[in-house]
User: Which sequence fits this backbone?
């Protein structure tokens, strides 16, 4: 069965818990975003490996980027064009995979979304 968008009631009851672990609204889309800072690249990549296996098993995949020890994750359900229960489930799993990692709320200029990159006008 196709995943359906979270209702207002579901959002009210489920999102505060994710908010408390550091998830925030992603800009410009119905999605949640969290940025982790690990101690080093191996720890970041170990997290990503576990996340990748969980994502593949659930057939639900994160939109993410990695730069050295930073993993920047956005969750949304593309087929539903917004948040569904699949995103809540994956977010909860990711939180379990990175219990000790620092959560970054303020990202520096070095970490930019590819969507911000524009070709220079000739
Ligand atoms: C064919 C395959 O099941 C779909 O493309 C899945 C794969 N992973 C997915 N992941 C996410 N986040 N959203 C989707 O709609 C989605 N669709």
Assistant:
């Amino acid at each position: 069965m196709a995943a359906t968008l979270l209702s207002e009631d579901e959002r009210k009851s489920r999102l505060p818990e994710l908010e408390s672990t550091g998830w925030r609204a992603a800009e410009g889309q119905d999605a949640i975003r969290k940025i982790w800072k690990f101690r080093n690249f191996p720890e970041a990549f170990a997290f990503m490996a576990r996340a990748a296996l969980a994502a593949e098993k659930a057939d639900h995949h994160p939109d993410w980027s990695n730069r050295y020890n930073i993993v920047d994750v956005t969750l949304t359900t593309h087929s539903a064009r917004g948040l569904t229960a699949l995103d809540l489930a994956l977010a909860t799993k990711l939180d379990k995979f990175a219990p000790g990692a620092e959560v970054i709320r303020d990202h520096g200029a070095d970490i930019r979304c590819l969507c911000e990159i524009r070709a220079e006008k000739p």
Remarks:
- Strands lie at 24-25, 32-37, 63-67, 70-75, 102-104.
- Residues 108-117 have pLDDT under 50 and may be disordered.
- Residues 59-61, 77-79 surround H2B (CB under 6 Å).
